[in-house]
Write a structure and sequence with these properties.
GO molecular function (chains A, B): ATP binding; magnesium ion binding; thiamine-phosphate kinase activity
Number of helices of chain A: 10
Strand content of chain A: 15-25%
Catalytic activity (chains A, B): thiamine phosphate + ATP = thiamine diphosphate + ADP
GO biological process, one term (chains A, B): thiamine biosynthetic process
Radius of gyration of chain A: 21 Å
CATH topology of the largest domain in chain A: Phosphoribosyl-aminoimidazole Synthetase, Chain A, domain 2
Order of helices and strands of chain A: HEEEHEHEEEHHHEHEHHEHEEE
CATH architecture of the largest domain in chain A: Alpha-Beta Complex
Oligomer: homodimer
Shape of chain A: globular
Strand order of the largest sheet of chain A: 8-10-7-11-9-12-13
Structural class of chain A: alpha+beta
EC number (chains A, B): 2.7.4.16
CATH superfamily of the largest domain in chain A: PurM-like C-terminal domain
Number of strands of chain A: 13
Family (chains A, B): Belongs to the thiamine-monophosphate kinase family.
Chain lengths: 347, 347
C-alpha cells in the first residue's frame, strides 16, 4: 500500500514554487465565458454578467479528512473538487471556477503531486470547471488541500436552507450511508495490512461503497433534473455531515419541524449488508455517516407528480410546523426525536 | 513566550464545529452592498453589479510561514487577511469579501482561536471587508490558515503584470527589506530565549521592523492615491517574494527589460542599520527578502509630474526593450543581471 513504490521521483526543491505551478498548470485550458483571466497574475478576473456569484470553500487535511494509506492521490484530488462543487449545486447554482491551494512536504516527489492534479483536472474536465488560481507551498507535517469554488445562478433560482414551508415534501437524491460504511471497510483493511503486510486488502465486490468514500460525485444531474421538470426546491443542502444533521439545519433555519420516515431512507443493499457485517445499524449510518454528497431538498406538494417516477430521488418525509418537533418515525412506527450525531472534526 | 500562559481554556471538542463557527462569527456584521448573503448556507451569494470580480487565495502554514513562538495570534490573523488584500490592490481593485478556513489542533483553547479571529476582524473592520464564509476543522499538523479574497474593479481600471511598456517608470511604495530584517531579529531572540528562558526578548527600539514582519498593512492608500492623481499604472504587482522576483515577473510577462538603480531602492534607516548588525547587505534584503507587501508598479513618463512629490512612492528605474536585459545598476555604477533569490517554500 505504499503509493510511491516504484514511481519516479523528481525533486520539488529544485523545481521551486513558480516552476511547480507552471509545470502543473501549463496544459490547463480556460474555457468558461465567466473566466476573464485565469492563472498568472495577483488575482484571477471573473465576469459574472447578470448572475449572482456563489462562493464556498472546503479544506481537507491529512490525518483528519483522508488517510494516504488507502487514498490514491488521484482520487483525493478528484474528491477535493467534488466536495466543493457539491456546495454550489446545493444552492441550485452552476460551479464554473475553482482555486486550489496545496501544502505538502518538500519530500513529496513531483510525480505524487502530478497524480493529485490529475484527479483535480479530471474533475474539472468532467464538470466543466476552470482552475483559475491557488497557492502551492511546503508543509512541515502533512498534505493540506484548500479549495474555493465559484458558481453562478440567477437570483430567482438560488435555493437557501431557510425557506422550507410546512407541508413541503422532504426529498433526497441517491442513497445514503455508503461513504461511511466504505470508510469502515478501508479502515479495517488498513489494520489487517499493518498487522501483516503480506495480506492484500480484501475489497472484492465492494467497489460501490469504496467509491462512495474515495470518489464521490457531486449531483449536478439532480440540479439539471429539477430544472428540466420545472421544479424549484423550496430549500436545499448537500449531505456532507449526515442526513440528520442536514435536515436539522433546514428545520432550524426555516423555523419548522419535520417527520422523517426511517423506512423511506434510501440505503443501497451493499451498504446495508456491509453495515450489518460491522455490527452497525444501516439507518444510523445513513443518518449520521456523512460524506455522501447527495442533495437533500424540499419541494411543494404540488410538484410531487413531476418527480414521483424518478427512481434516483426518494421522498423521505415532510415539513411540519415548528411545535410538532423534529421526528424520526421508525420502521416499527415509534416516534423518536431526530438528533445529529454527525461528524465532529474536534472529537 | 508561552502564548497560552495564564489564559482561560475552553474545550473545542465540547463546542464542536458548528458551535465554534457560531461563536466566532455571531458578532460579525455584513456591510458591503456586493454581499447578497454571507455566512450560514452552503455558499455565500455575491452581487458583482457591473464590475469584474477579482479572486485570489493564500495559505499560511505553521512552521513554514509563521512561528507561534514569537507570533501573537491576533497579529497572525491580521496578517493572513492583509497578504490577501494586497493581491487585490495589486490588480488596482477594491477587496470586499474574504473566506477564512482554519485547521487547528483540538487541543487549542477556544481563547486562542478567539485571539486569531480578533486579528481577522480588526483587519476586516479597518479595510471594510465582509467575512462571508469558511471552514473550521481540527488539524493534526499544526495551525493552517487559508484565506480567499474577492474584490471588484471596472474592467478599464484593472492593472495586470503583462502590460508594462518601454520607457515606463518603475515605482515602489513605502520601503523594502524591513519585514525580512524584522524576521531575523525575531529568530535571534527566539534562539536566545530557548537557550535561557529567563532572558526577555530584546526588541527595544525595533518596533518598526518587527511590525513590518508581524503586522504588515496592504497598501490601499496607494491605490487611492493613484486614483486621486488620475494615474492608472501600466502594470502592477505586490512585493511578497522580494523586489527582484516581482520586477522579473513584470518584465517576463510584459516581455520587456529593465534598469533598476540600487541607490533609488527605498530602505528605512532601521532596516539598514539592523541588516548591517546581522552582517547582511541591506540591498539584498530589499531585493530578495520579501513579505513587505508594498506595491511595485510602472507608470507612463507623462505621469511623473503627478506623483513626483509623493514621498511614499519611489521611482527606482525604468522599463527597457527586452534585449537590453534586466539590470541592476549598483551604487558604484556597475551593471549586474537582476536575479531572483526570493523565498522558495520548498528549500
Amino acid at each position: 500500500m505504499d503509493l510511491f513504490e516504484n514511481t519516479e521521483r523528481t525533486n520539488l526543491e529544485q523545481l521551486g514554487e513558480f516552476g511547480l505551478i507552471d509545470h502543473l498548470t501549463k496544459n490547463f485550458v480556460i474555457g468558461k465565458s465567466t473566466t476573464f483571466k485565469g492563472i498568472g497574475d495577483d488575482a484571477a478576473v471573473l465576469d459574472a454578467k447578470d448572475k449572482k456569484v456563489l462562493v464556498s470553500t472546503d479544506m481537507l487535511l491529512e490525518g483528519i479528512h483522508f488517510d494516504l494509506a488507502y487514498t490514491p492521490l488521484k482520487h483525493l484530488g478528484y474528491k477535493s473538487v467534488q466536495v466543493n462543487l457539491s456546495d454550489i449545486y446545493a444552492m441550485n447554482g452552476i460551479p464554473e471556477q475553482i482555486t486550489v491551494s496545496i501544502g505538502m512536504s518538500s519530500k513529496f516527489p513531483l510525480e505524487a503531486i502530478e497524480e493529485l492534479y490529475e484527479g483535480i483536472y479530471l474533475a474539472c474536465e468532467q464538470y466543466n470547471i476552470d482552475l483559475i488560481g491557488g497557492d502551492t507551498t511546503a508543509s512541515k507535517q502533512g498534505l493540506v488541500i484548500s479549495v474555493t469554488v465559484l458558481g453562478y445562478a440567477d437570483e430567482k433560482d438560488i435555493t437557501y436552507r431557510n425557506t422550507a414551508e410546512e407541508g413541503d415534501l422532504i426529498c433526497v437524491s441517491g442513497d445514503l450511508g455508503g461513504a461511511y460504511v466504505g470508510l469502515q471497510l478501508l479502515e479495517r483493511e488498513k489494520l489487517v495490512y499493518l498487522e501483516n503486510p503480506q495480506i492484500q486488502p480484501d475489497l472484492e465486490g465492494k467497489d460501490y461503497i469504496v467509491e462512495r468514500q474515495l470518489k464521490p460525485e457531486a449531483r449536478r444531474d439532480v440540479v439539471d433534473l429539477l430544472k428540466s421538470r420545472g421544479i424549484k426546491p423550496t430549500s436545499m443542502i448537500d449531505v456532507s455531515d449526515g442526513l440528520a444533521s442536514e435536515l436539522l439545519h433546514i428545520c432550524k433555519q426555516s423555523n419548522k419541524g419535520c417527520n422523517l420516515y426511517e423506512e423511506k431512507i434510501p440505503i443501497d443493499p451493499m451498504t446495508f449488508e456491509t453495515a450489518r457485517e460491522f455490527g452497525l445499524d444501516p439507518t444510523v449510518c445513513a443518518l449520521s455517516g456523512g460524506e455522501d454528497y447527495e442533495l437533500l431538498f424540499t419541494i411543494k406538494q404540488a410538484d410531487y407528480d413531476k418527480i414521483k417516477h424518478d427512481v434516483d430521488v426518494s421522498i423521505i418525509g415532510y415539513i411540519t410546523e415548528p411545535n410538532a418537533g423534529k421526528n424520526l418515525i421508525s420502521k416499527g412506527g415509534s416516534v423518536h426525536a431526530l438528533t445529529a450525531q454527525g461528524w465532529n472534526a474536534f472529537t
